[in-house]
Amino acid sequence: MLTYIVRRCVVAAVMIFMVATAVFMILHIVPGDPVELMLSSDGMAPDPAVVSEMRTRLGLDLPLYQQYWDYLTRLASADLGRSFQDNQDVLGNIAQRLPRTLELIGMATLLSLVMGIPLGVLSARRRGGWVDRMLGWATSIALSVPTFVLGTLLVMIFALMLRLVPAGGFVPFSQSPWEHLRLLLMPSVAIAVGFTAIIVRMTRSTILDVLEQDWVRTARAKGVRETRVLRRHVVRNALGPVLTVTGLQMGSMLGGTVLVEFIFNWPGMSGFLVKAVENRDYPEVQGIVLVTATLFILLNVIVDVLYSVLDPQVRKS
User: Which residues, in sequence order, are CB contacts of 148 under 8 Å at separation 6+?
Assistant: First the structure.
């Protein structure tokens, strides 16, 4: 088990290094000078002398290999640099916004698992019946509706028409826990609907596969109650693929909450990244992408380890 974990961690470290390198290179290939963008005012070209002085101060006049080496050196000491726009510490800015996005993803994942797994089990147990068909139609609709459309509908119905929850915004949990949770609910539901449909379908599929196994038939032949067979034998063995899909979806949501955060005015990482890209703020873009990619990779490592606990055969592969 330890060897498997170490091997996965080494692979993860190599992937993080490759991501850091790719982000650095791509940003320096993309057309556009961040210095000229910062100094431009009302469409007027900045003074070349001021541009040159600013480039020297920011280290952008150095050869690309020197900038790359400096970048890796800072990363080794967990220094993501300072923003070109406001000279703020990039790591500090990310640390302020990242928990908000993680909270949104965590709540959406919790809602999806709480609803998706039981509904998937129910659909599998009622295979071919009206419940199974209804859930099939519902999941198809949930997967067909774009998240930004669903978010807009939620705002129109529950905020503007019924006035049950605020339309959007953010209040720190420490300031007002109840208001914070009210503002968190709708964006979480907007993300969770499609995620729940995926969990329902994956749970149903894996449950049906496990139910066809010989050892399940043997347990039934021995007179073990159906609920016990389902709870102790079937569901546990079916959770591996569901866990894998959950980890992948959570990783995808790290970079896929842009529209949801925009619709509900939730101050997370996505809006921060969009602003950084518009301003050609190299340190902020590099820091945000690197942190997001690192979380995605580490999340998949955790999922792989948990999967190996559920299925020891994975550790041998």
Answer: 259, 260, 263
pTM comes to 0.78
Q: Which residues in 168-196 are b (16+ Cβ under 10 Å) and which e?
A: beebeeeeeeeebeebbbbbbbbbbbbbb
CA pair distance 72, 16, nearest whole angstrom: 12
Structure tokens at 126: 């009622």
User: What is the residue-wise DSSP string for the chain?
Assistant: -HHHHHHHHHHHHHHHHHHHHHHHHHHHHSS--HHHHHH-BTTBPPPHHHHHHHHHHHTTTS-HHHHHHHHHHHHHTT---B-TTT--BHHHHHHHHHHHHHHHHHHHHHHHHHHHHHHHHHHHHTTTSHHHHHHHHHHHHHHHS-HHHHHHHHIIIIIIIS--S-SS----TTT-HHHHHHHHHHHHHHHHHHHHHHHHHHHHHHHHHHHTSHHHHHHHHTT--HHHIIIIIIHHHHHHHHHHHHHHHHHHHHHS-HHHHHHTT--SHHHHHHHHHHTT-HHHHHHHHHHHHHHHHHHHHHHHHHHHHH-GGGGG-
Residue type, 76: A
At 140-178, the pLDDT tens digits run 999 898 888 888 899 899 888 888 888 888 898 889 899
